[in-house]
Amino acid sequence: MSYREEKRADQAAAREADREDRRLELETRLEAERLRAEEKRADAEAKAEREAKAAEARRRQEQADRKAADAKKAAKKAAAAAKRARQVRWLKANPATLFVAFVMVASIVPAVVSQVAALSGAKVDVLLAALLAAMLEGGAWAVTFMGKQAEDAGRETRKYRIATWATASAAAAVNFWHGLEAYSAHPWVAVVLGGSSLFAIYIWDMKTHGSHGPTRAERREAKARKAHEQARRKDHKEIAQQADRLKSAMPFGAISDEQAFAAAWRIHKGAEPGLSAELYATATNAVLSLGAAFELGEHVRPELLETGLQAARLNPFPELAPTAGSQAGIGDPAPHTTAQKPVVGRSDEELEQLLPDALAAAAQLVAEGKQISATGLAKKLQIRREDALRLRDRVIEERTIRAA
Length: 404
Known about the structure:
Elements: H1 3-93, H2 95-121, H3 126-152, H4 158-182, H5 187-209, H6 216-235, H7 237-249, H8 257-269, H9 277-299, H10 302-313, H11 348-367, H12 374-381, H13 385-403
Helix pairs in contact: 2-3, 2-4, 2-5, 3-4, 4-5, 6-7, 7-8, 9-10, 11-12, 11-13, 12-13
């Protein structure tokens, strides 16, 4: 190969290598551009995704904010409605308080204005006059509310009430004096101005104390309780004194007045309050006398028994009829019955054998001026009273037959 051919071959190879380099460079540039494009596209997609997520988050946040705002608004509206309902209920339940507040304001404001005018008319500076008027009216109300706190705490309120009325009276005097000077042609205006300092205090006092006093029934009960205590101390002086000694000997509040009196009664009388040995004896004697009266009426004047039964049946006051548990007013007034014990005694044959002796004993009783009674026969014949009761019936029957 000649030099020229070699040179052409080298030049062709160089051109080929240059084309290859340009091709590789182009491919490299194209690949780089593709990569940049893909990177840009990925960045754009990522940005779009981030923006979409941010937009979704904003949408959700706005939705949550709207819900929170709506809930807050609804809660505020419900609270306002509940507050109005409470106010309406309070106004319905306390109409007197509302009108008392209105009357108090209508009384206090003219009183303060009158005092300021009175002090200003005396050449006192307006600011100083306002302070002095506030001192008079405000001082009265300050002491009033201090007294209310003391009352709620259970402390003595007398000094506060005295101070309240004293301060209010001073303010009323200022207003009255000013009214006499300013409205000399109409003195009654001075009375109204003076009363304006007292009326609010009076209304407040009626509101806080007038509605908390005892009721009529409570006053009647207290009066009756006091009368009962006085009668007790009058009728049972010694026992009442003993009850006082018991209470003073015990720790304070350990026993009540009724417990102390009941204990003192048991000490002196040996029975429950209201009862005594004398009362029990009286009741027992009354029962025995009643039994003797019925026994006499049955066997001496049978018509008396019939009359008594008729009187009991036609009694117009059945609540006064005696019962087994109400003699002398002692015990349970409810009627009750007791089981009768079975009678165990002599037989009829034995009583028939005793009949002649019983007739003789009956004759002795009559001779002695006594009634033919089971008790008398039992003593005469030395037998049981149950047997004497049956034998007495036979004696009376036999005497009736013989008399006929």
